[in-house]
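User: Please predict the structure of the protein below. I'd like the answer in structure-token form so I can feed it into my own downstream comparison script.

Assistant: Understood. Taking the following sequence of 206 residues as input:
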Amino acid sequence: MVVSADDAVARARAFHEVMARRRTVRDFSPEPVPDGVLEWAVRTAATAPSGANVQPWRFVAVTDPERKRRLREAAEAEEREFYGRRASREWLDALAPLGTDWHKPFLERAPVVVVVFEVHKGPDSPRPYYTKESVGIAVGLLLASLHQAGLATLTHTPSPMRFLNEICDRPPQERASYVIPVGYPAPGARVPDIQRKELNEVLIRL
């Protein structure tokens, strides 16, 4: 595809204007995700580059209420340990402006929770290369695609995450890396007033 210089700038700017409105949401509406949206978003995520083109990712869409309940209970148990014992004071101070704590009701309220697994070497899977980098790029594309479709997301990373293999019926060579609630913001949902760094703080030309 050939794009003129003027069109290239216009397209890049238009995409930025869409993505600049993306915010993490912690209060979801129960309104269902339209059929087909998640499927196309995962197809987009799966176009990501990966080490040796192994494509070491698996996206598990959890909609069953009982599984979401179990997921929330297990995640909150880990989060209580994090906020109560494992996190340093510096880390907790950094999180304070966001208003987060160990309570994770969004894991039940969001209509869909996508659990992203890294696929490591196993009986039916080859050895992956640059696994975390590859999966991270795919997740970025997933978030962008869902936002483009008008949906809200949250990137949750409880640690450790081995409990997700049992809840999602995944084999041991798959390792959970992201938990992403997906849906529409609840009426009146509030988000932190965050500021992005200026371009000259993040772009260096040499």
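That's the full token string. The two ends are 28 Å apart (CA to CA).
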